[in-house]
Structure prediction request, 284 residues.
Amino acid sequence: MIRRILLVLLTLLLALPLFAGGELEEPESGSDAALEGTPEDPRLYQPGKLTVATGEPVYPPWMMDDNPAGGEGFENGMIYALAEELGFDREDVIWVRQTFDQGIAPGDKPYDFNIQQYSVTEARREFVDFSIVYYKPEKAVVALPDSNISNARTFADLQDARWGATIGTTDLDYIENIIGVDDVAVFNDQVGTFQGLLGGQIDATVISLPTALFTTAVQVPDATIAAILPHDPNDQGHGLVFKKGNPIVDWINKGLEAIIADGVIADLTSKYLIGDDSIPEITE
Prediction:
């Protein structure tokens, strides 16, 4: 009996360090909270690094020479300015590649956010989170100069053509829902879309005006910009894409707001996304 009492007392004594004032002690977590909003934020995919996804490949004028780390282009120039605003050194920006569709698919992401001209739409918000809008481009019709589409001046004129667009893009949505075309050829990427145009499979496509300006001047000089189109009411503009529920969105938004206020976006727009006033506009 004495041995049993001693054993119970020993068990209670060994358990005493786990309690303080009758309550179980909790591990300290204040140090993690203090790091939030800094480059060592524990909520980052890799604390100490800003891990950014983009396309494979990337296209001018958004990024030049298929080299995100080069910093030449509108979007990667913006990312390096954002990283500096958030406190990261240039070498702490890590680039990874994903397809366009992977970026807006639901689920975990092997990065902090994705940038590749993602249009913010309510339909996409069901699966991913977006930053604030950092740029809203106009849409443009791209066609071959000898195509009838080059003389189009109304939506009715545009409907009488063979259209194509890249899968998963708001460009495809625009052709179907705004122009009102039922049968649109779908291509896996932008290169495929332009190959379809040059090969005579389609008469025209729709892409953002900055992309159209560079593409028709440098990449596909046989094509021309036939017209500028009205903004898509369902397309709020370009935003960064995050995994749904990512807790760093507010912090990144503060950084974006700061570089917008500092004129960074305006300067990058002037450098890389210059328009052409001579292109006709279609408004109805």
Notes: DSSP finds eleven helices and twelve strands in the chain. The first strand starts at residue 19 and ends at 20.
